[in-house]
Design goal:
single chain, 576 residues, mainly beta, 11-stranded mixed beta sheet, 8-stranded antiparallel beta sheet, 3 helices, 34 strands, 3% helix, globular
């Protein structure tokens, strides 16, 4: 069955193209949602605006996590483990250069991909944005944020990728060379006034291939009208043999080889060819989109005698007669999904570089993890999960003998490992048995959710199973038209919980239900709300279903901020 746009059909289609390999595990949510990275603590409350990343400095025993923010400086969360992180507002891990001219490629900058080595050196790919609409210079953009709010095609934004490096375990990063010599990738054309948003954007984790080189993808944004001739949008696969040289990175060419070299259009004579990356196809069946989170799957049977070879390399196949069946995937990718799901895919190819060849054929057809309950932590108007990644809290502690498996241990320090021991078999002394046997799962799904113009990163445990999970349950039926009392339960602000009795007052032609003078169920502008109709500050929660004649049982979200999070778990009729 072929599946086509729009994205709303992808979840339904996923059941049609998700079972090509019965050995591919399913991801399942466990437990409840919790705040994964709290950006409201510590006095530096900038909202997260990219996929969260983490790394573990072996020398100091500190795990750091960051997410690019909507403001300027990027402050880390840090602690001994991923489960013990607190916001550190004493100093940012990176301070952007904030140049006001595009040719520096060092404007608004955010660290987005880090790979820490055992000696504490940590190269990082830096996402850069030049915003012509924020310069006050009309020669860069006919719309200026100082005088009007510039959105959509009225923005004048050029994205690029640069290289940074830390020499103190990721506590502080600097550009790897004086700008613009830190430039890794940019479109082979100079900035153009009023062209919208284009260039090299979201950056994936860096993963070592079987050849010892490092690979990643960087999502290219733009349209046929704004991108250079021959350049298509989508994830651009990249390769480098050294992470410390910005000029060593190469993009995937039309022949599938990593030979594309980028040049600086401000210092290179016009007409010089090159700089066109062969991006991955962006179709509904694609294994991943621009926001791609790659992870290496490991189990107790997979890393024996891995030594200095890029791990793991030994086969994972079981032979039955003349049939060879893969028993465990080598890689997992998590990416953009739908309004209520996260896309993920597995690869049974042991060579990561092969997963970036062709158009994703080395990956299994994508599956979709339904993220139920997340809306209670987000705005009812914008419930879509963003920037989804998986992080295994046990990753830095899975390898017991770091000398015997140094590269696998290095992957662990970069939170690239996902423990799938429960799906494999055998035993291996190279892996930490206590970390491997941890129950419940140490794997978490992290997503950013929005409310009132801000974002927070939530997380929830993720398990693996070979049993196909049931489809999401249908929504509960609407309440009876004769309902006179509703019970609100599960609201983060407990003063909103309780019994709401029908009153004689009507708002917008519909009945209202009152707990007390400050807590009223009423409908306005087609949506049910809880608060006081005349006091905006008292408005606590709003429901997504529109034009309902009575309060819906589910679908409640936040209005103003996270002070009242989460929204009610249910609003049910208890008397009619």
């Amino acid at each position: 069955m072929a599946c086509w746009w729009p994205a709303a059909v992808i979840l339904a289609c996923s059941f049609a193209f998700s079972d090509a390999n019965p050995a591919a595990p399913y991801l399942v949510l466990e437990g409840d949602w919790e705040v994964g990275l709290n950006n409201t603590e510590g006095g530096c409350p900038e909202p997260p605006d990219s996929m969260p990343i983490a790394w573990h400095d072996r020398a100091t025993g500190i795990t750091r996590a960051i997410s690019a923010v909507g403001g300027w400086d990027t402050y880390p969360w840090q602690g001994p483990t991923l489960n013990e992180l607190v916001r550190n507002c004493s100093g940012p891990v990176y301070v952007p250069i904030n140049s006001t001219v595009p040719q520096t490629y060092a404007n608004r900058q955010w660290v987005q991909s880090v790979h820490i080595f055992p000696n504490g050196t940590a190269p990082a790919l830096i996402h850069n944005e030049f915003h012509g609409e924020k310069t006050g210079n009309l020669s860069y953009c006919s719309c200026q944020d100082a005088t009007e709010h510039c959105v959509g095609t009225h923005k004048c934004v050029l994205w690029s990728t640069g290289l940074g490096v830390s020499h103190n375990g990721g506590a502080e990063f600097k550009v790897a060379a004086q700008p613009p010599n830190h430039l890794v990738a940019a479109t082979p054309a100079r900035f153009v006034r009023d062209h919208g948003i284009l260039g090299y954007g979201p950056i994936s984790p860096l993963v070592r291939g079987s050849d010892g080189a490092f690979y990643c993808t960087v999502g290219i944004a733009g349209t046929a009208a704004t991108l250079p001739p021959g350049q298509t949008p989508g994830p651009c696969p990249m390769r480098t043999e050294t992470l410390l040289d910005p000029k060593a990175f190469r993009g995937r060419g039309a022949d599938g080889r990593f030979t594309v070299q980028w040049h600086d259009p401000y210092t290179t004579p016009p007409g010089v060819p090159g700089g066109i990356c062969n991006t991955m196809d962006q179709v509904p069946e694609a294994p991943f989109f621009n926001h791609a989170c790659f992870r290496r799957v490991v189990s107790a049977a997979d890393v024996k005698d891995s030594g200095t070879a890029p791990p793991p390399q030994q086969p994972r196949n079981t032979t039955h007669g003349h049939t060879t069946t893969p028993t465990l995937p080598y890689f997992l990718v998590v990416s953009d999904g739908t309004a209520k799901s996260v896309r993920y895919s597995w690869s049974f190819n042991p060579r990561f570089e092969d997963t970036l060849q062709g158009n994703g054929s080395a990956w299994e057809p994508p599956r979709f993890l339904h993220v139920d309950g997340l809306q209670r932590w987000s705005s009812a108007a914008v419930p879509r999960p963003e920037y989804a990644v998986v992080l295994d809290a046990a990753s830095p502690f899975l390898v017991t003998d770091r000398e015997a498996s140094p590269l696998l241990a290095e992957d662990g320090d970069n939170y690239l490992l996902v423990n799938a021991t429960g799906l494999g078999s055998g035993d291996d002394q190279q892996l930490n048995s206590s970390a491997l046997s941890s129950s419940p799962s140490s794997l978490y799904l992290y997503v950013a959710v929005s409310a009132a113009g801000s974002r927070r990163i939530m997380r929830r445990r993720v398990g693996m199973t070979m049993t196909r999970p049931p489809p999401p349950p249908p929504p509960p039926p609407p309440p009876p038209s004769t309902c006179t009392v509703f019970a609100v339960v599960g609201a983060g602000n407990s003063t909103f919980n309780g019994l709401y009795h029908k009153t004689g007052t009507r708002v917008a032609g519909l009945a209202t239900f009152e707990l007390d003078a400050h807590h009223i169920l009423y409908s306005s502008a087609g949506r049910w709300r809880i608060g006081r109709p005349t006091v905006t500050a008292d408005l606590g929660y709003v429901a997504t279903p529109e034009n309902a004649t009575l309060p819906p049982p589910t679908g409640w979200g936040l209005v103003h901020d996270y002070i009242r999070a989460p929204a009610p778990e249910a609003v049910t009729c208890v008397k009619h």
